[in-house]
Amino acid sequence: MTGRHQGGRSVDEITGSRRLRRMRKADWSRRLVRESALGPDDLIWPIFIMEGEDKAEQVGSMPGVERFTIDRAVLAAREAQGLGIPAVAIFANIPHERKDQTGSHALDADNIINRVTAAIKAEVPGIGVITDAALDPFTDHGHDGVLRDGIIVNDETVGIIARAAVLQADAGADIIAPSDMMDGRIGAIRDALDAAGHQDVAIMSYTAKFASACYGPYREAIGTGGLLKGDKKTYYVDPGNSDEAVREAEADLDEGADMLMVKPALPYLDVCYRLKSELRVPVFAYQVSGEYAMIEAAAANGWIDGEKVMMEKLVAFKRAGCDGILTYYAPRVARLLAG
């Protein structure tokens, strides 16, 4: 009915006959005008790796997420490719005896990151492999760089990270994604890659990695949770700063970054939107371990519909302008989208 309401105009008179519900009336019409849609091509699957053979271990604080030995990681990459996921991102749990103050094992060409990269590229050549050159998996103090006298030493760290990036590219990495937030590391990595003949290897900069409280389960997964001395506020971006994030992004692009990443994702949708709208370059978001764990915990308690919340949050990243999303949900989402 379109009759007049008490005291005045009809709904048609109020709206000028512009009724926004018209295109919401059916599933087909909602799909027809949907502005932001999620597909397998938007997904990157972060996978955790460990030493050993033919094993998978559950990460206690991340239900449904496992650490894989190299052979199992190859199977995971093959699964991802079959689901239409374009790339996997590799994160390693390094045995404690291989850790030291400077993260020197990162410069071992035969470390597990490089071995799993080579194995995946040999067995599943059509999938992209993304590696992180930061030192936190390799340091005995849990920081992303060299720790001296209580200070993370920027320039020495950059030198090590650039050398590690070349080794990762030698092993077959398609994208280097440094998460350390050291000043100048993008330019140093670009120079090192080019000098080593890896001009085609791209750089996805963790350009706005915030000093967040959402990283705890990840640190358990890579075995650094109990190691961290102090915090990372001297090199991660302060959660209150978006202008600073934009300045970081501009500097990284000037130094040679091909793509930008915001981490964590949901608390910083405004930053994702700013980077995309102001810089007009490929922007990615990392739905981090704490975000994943919160959904899983609430779903396990029956407080939310975990599957619906999972999808709603991922669509939010697309709506904010993200070209892709790193998410532990990637295979589950891809299977859902495939019906």
TrEMBL record:
<keyword id="KW-0350">Heme biosynthesis</keyword>
<dbReference type="InterPro" id="IPR001731">
    <property type="entry name" value="ALAD"/>
</dbReference>
<protein>
    <recommendedName>
        <fullName>Delta-aminolevulinic acid dehydratase</fullName>
        <ecNumber>4.2.1.24</ecNumber>
    </recommendedName>
</protein>
<dbReference type="GO" id="GO:0005829">
    <property type="term" value="C:cytosol"/>
</dbReference>
<dbReference type="GO" id="GO:0008270">
    <property type="term" value="F:zinc ion binding"/>
</dbReference>
<comment type="subunit">
    <text>Homooctamer.</text>
</comment>
<dbReference type="GO" id="GO:0006782">
    <property type="term" value="P:protoporphyrinogen IX biosynthetic process"/>
</dbReference>
<feature type="active site" description="Schiff-base intermediate with substrate">
    <location>
        <position position="209"/>
    </location>
</feature>
<dbReference type="Pfam" id="PF00490">
    <property type="entry name" value="ALAD"/>
</dbReference>
<dbReference type="GO" id="GO:0004655">
    <property type="term" value="F:porphobilinogen synthase activity"/>
</dbReference>
<keyword id="KW-0479">Metal-binding</keyword>
<keyword id="KW-0456">Lyase</keyword>
<comment type="similarity">
    <text>Belongs to the ALAD family.</text>
</comment>
<dbReference type="InterPro" id="IPR030656">
    <property type="entry name" value="ALAD_AS"/>
</dbReference>
<keyword id="KW-0627">Porphyrin biosynthesis</keyword>
<keyword id="KW-0460">Magnesium</keyword>
<comment type="pathway">
    <text>Porphyrin-containing compound metabolism; protoporphyrin-IX biosynthesis; coproporphyrinogen-III from 5-aminolevulinate: step 1/4.</text>
</comment>
<feature type="active site" description="Schiff-base intermediate with substrate">
    <location>
        <position position="263"/>
    </location>
</feature>
<dbReference type="InterPro" id="IPR013785">
    <property type="entry name" value="Aldolase_TIM"/>
</dbReference>
<feature type="binding site">
    <location>
        <position position="248"/>
    </location>
    <ligand>
        <name>Mg(2+)</name>
    </ligand>
</feature>
